[in-house]
Amino acid sequence: MSNNIDYSLYLVTEAYREGYRSEYLKKVRQALQGGVNVLQFREKNASSLRQFELAKALKDMSQSFHVPFIINDRVDIALAVNADGVHVGQEDLPAEDVRRLIGPDKLLGVSAATVEEAVKAERDGADYLGVGSVFQTGSKGDATLIEMDEIARIRQEVTIPIVAIGGINAENVKRLPERHADGIAVISAILSAADPKGAAEQLKEQFLSKKHK
């Protein structure tokens, strides 16, 4: 499944605030209109019921744009809404067990910050890697910054797509190593923008123009 997916602009949702559902969904829709290729629902604080409700709404939205819908960590919710896949970090359920739970046909993404983690993730059944944090980020306070050269080293050791993540914006995207990342994952660079659609278009254009040099 992953061979047919364009990971160039991968959007991770921002934290949900009660009472702002319509605004939350509106910004994601605008981002999708701007060319987001993959949508990940990441929510650590809302109740399981609220996460389920939001996931259902986002799944329907992503389907209307023909964009794969991934859920971070919560395998149960991913299965409940029939999401297209699950993304797990190094402190979540082991990738090999998640693969067993979701089966062979759904996407499995794994966060990696080292060559060793990346190689193990591919061996355990990952379809793609989220590699970072490449820049300082405010969305994940415990994120470890990696050296840019590490992306190149990971690229040499794995065959699955690499999505660079962590603090990426319209300015620093130019500093990513050319051709080593298949895509960029962002949150605030799009969802905190006054014009999420325009921000998505700009980021995607800048990344693709650099990647294809």
From TrEMBL:
Keywords: Magnesium, Metal-binding, Thiamine biosynthesis, Transferase. Mg(2+) binds at D73, D92. It holds the Pfam family TMP-TENI. One of its GO terms (molecular function) is thiamine-phosphate diphosphorylase activity. Binds 1 Mg(2+) ion per subunit. Pathway: Cofactor biosynthesis; thiamine diphosphate biosynthesis; thiamine phosphate from 4-amino-2-methyl-5-diphosphomethylpyrimidine and 4-methyl-5-(2-phosphoethyl)-thiazole: step 1/1. 2-[(2R,5Z)-2-carboxy-4-methylthiazol-5(2H)-ylidene]ethyl phosphate binds at T137, G138, S139, G167, I187, S188. Its EC number is 2.5.1.3. Its cofactor is Mg(2+). It comes from the Bacteria. Residues 9-190 form the Thiamine phosphate synthase/TenI domain. It catalyses: 2-[(2R,5Z)-2-carboxy-4-methylthiazol-5(2H)-ylidene]ethyl phosphate + 4-amino-2-methyl-5-(diphosphooxymethyl)pyrimidine + 2 H(+) = thiamine phosphate + CO2 + diphosphate; 2-(2-carboxy-4-methylthiazol-5-yl)ethyl phosphate + 4-amino-2-methyl-5-(diphosphooxymethyl)pyrimidine + 2 H(+) = thiamine phosphate + CO2 + diphosphate; 4-methyl-5-(2-phosphooxyethyl)-thiazole + 4-amino-2-methyl-5-(diphosphooxymethyl)pyrimidine + H(+) = thiamine phosphate + diphosphate. Belongs to the thiamine-phosphate synthase family. HAMAP family: TMP_synthase. Condenses 4-methyl-5-(beta-hydroxyethyl)thiazole monophosphate (THZ-P) and 2-methyl-4-amino-5-hydroxymethyl pyrimidine pyrophosphate (HMP-PP) to form thiamine monophosphate (TMP). This is Thiamine-phosphate synthase. The lineage of its organism: Bacteria, Bacillati, Bacillota, Bacilli, Bacillales. The gene is thiE.
